[in-house]
TrEMBL record:
Keywords: DNA-binding, Transcription, Transcription regulation. PROSITE patterns: HTH_TETR_2. Residues 22-82 form the HTH tetR-type domain. GO terms for molecular function: DNA binding. The lineage of its organism: Bacteria, Bacillati, Actinomycetota, Actinomycetes, Mycobacteriales. Pfam families: TetR_C_1, TetR_N. This is TetR family transcriptional regulator. One of its GO terms (biological process) is negative regulation of DNA-templated transcription. SUPFAM superfamilies: Homeodomain-like, Tetracyclin repressor-like, C-terminal domain. The keyword Transcription applies. Residues 45-64 bind DNA.
Length: 235
């Protein structure tokens, strides 16, 4: 698993734990990611975070207003890692595609449990604002006016995060359940009554392969093709 990158935090204050570790916002964020990846988001609490960092539960509130604020910071960390991995291409639509891939990779490939836990969250923090600024800027480079760029941003964000959450959720299932679901698709053709469902029967040989792999790239291309062909202004 990739090591989470630490993002700068404003107003950083450090205190030492009983074990001699310097406490900081970043230490809590690291601990939260490790907890979620290994035990799931449901275990997140002031007590479990305290045990993870080796401090009293009350120490959390020197750096965060609540456990939910930790989750928001984790979500912002994820966005920051993706932005650090992304670089601008010559064409605006290629840059958008690469930005989507960078975000998807962090949410699904690097930290699937965490991606599933935070994909629906709005952070309101620095990295999310960076991502909005970059995306709107690329859409403006593509000729969209402010209002249309805002609409297209919403559609792109919902597609990306929805796809990431769906795939991360599947990866969070036990291996036995994932195997059972995959087997159901592979055996689809044998279970379909051809006379009653001729279209599904005809597609079954293709679905038994397609449903076992990610649709992210093909869905992204479909989304970007529609974006490139769409009107550039609200009128």
């Amino acid at each position: 698993m990739a090591e989470p990158r630490r993002q700068p935090a404003a107003g950083r204050r450090r205190r030492r734990t009983r074990a001699g570790t310097d406490l900081s916002r970043e230490v809590y964020i690291d601990a939260a990611v490790n907890l979620i990846e290994n035990r799931g988001a449901a275990v997140m609490s002031a007590r479990t975070l305290a045990a993870a960092v080796g401090a009293d539960a009350s120490a959390l509130y020197r750096y965060f207003g609540s456990v939910d604020d930790v989750l928001r910071a984790v979500a912002d960390r994820m966005i920051g890692i993706a932005l650090d991995n992304w670089s601008r291409s010559e064409h605006w639509i290629d840059s958008l595609a690469d930005l989507a891939r960078a975000l998807y990779s962090v949410y699904v490939n690097d930290f699937p449990q965490t991606g599933f836990a935070v994909a629906t969250r709005t952070t309101g923090l620095d990295n999310e604002i960076r991502a909005v600024e970059l995306t709107i800027g690329l859409l403006r480079d593509g000729g969209f006016d402010d209002e249309t760029a805002a609409y297209r941003f919403r559609s792109l964000a919902d597609f990306l995060l929805g796809q990431a959450m769906l795939e991360a959720a599947f990866l969070s299932l036990s291996p036995d359940i994932r195997s059972s679901d995959n087997t159901a698709w592979q055996e689809l053709g044998d279970r379909i009554p051809h006379a009653e469902a001729p279209h599904a029967a005809a597609a079954a040989p293709h679905l038994r392969v397609l449903m076992l792999r990610s649709s992210f790239e093909s869905s992204l291309q479909l989304m970007l093709s529609g974006l490139a062909a769409s009107p550039r202004n609200a009128a």
